Amino acid sequence: MPTPGDSISVPKHIAIIMDGNGRWAKERGLKRSDGHRAGAESVRECVEICKELGVEFLTLYAFSVENWKRPKTEIASLMTLLERFLKDKTPELNEKDVRLQAIGRLNDIPPKTLRQLHRSIEETSDNSGLTLILALSYGGREEIIDGIKSILHHVEEGHIDRAMIDPDLFSKHLYTRYYPDPDLLIRTSGEMRVSNFLLWQISYAEMVVTKKYWPEFRKDDLREAIVEYSRRQRRYGAI
Ligand code: FPP
Question: Which residue has the CA at smallest separation from atom 1 of ligand 1?
Fold first, then answer.
């Protein structure tokens, strides 16, 4: 297992599809909300280990645009959990020099949760260690559509000429314009899908899928995923 001094290649940006909270709870005869609560503890551990290993950006798929189709009670319990998590953990984020950010159609989030999110972002804005990015009400296709609309607006205003549109310029119109693309994409609970997550940004990411459910995915599992990433040769289509 690597420690901060080991010569493994630590990804600059890790993105995680946190899946399996519901199945984890069901297998234990618990409620889905118990699964989400246990999942929040995995979030805490992963933030901690990323900070220890020197990962610069960690993006977590916490709530997708598709998740709005879940029962109202589950959505409410997820939003309350998120709000509490942010309120309770913001001092810890500050202690650990973690800056919180969020991407997605944030205006869809219930006002009380959104206010806490903005407060936590504001209170951690001066931190310069790990950047923790929560994808909330996030969809990759929706982000691409929003990016196209933003470019069109700039074209109409005369700030962009259509000849200037290339992948670099397009990236600057995505929610993720301030961050590098993920180097490593992790998905828990064994599904081999990307589920509308960072579709543009994961073009060259290494993918690690683990069978573990998200609430079981802890520090050592993240370390292991980084070791696996480290082993792979990344050639970006070259020979
Ligand atoms: C997927 O499990 C997980 C989610 C939809 C939400 C992720 C939320 C958390 C980990 C809780 C806390 C988050 C933060 C940032 C504090 P699932 O419900 O889709 O599981 P299933 O596929 O087994 O039903």
Answer: 19
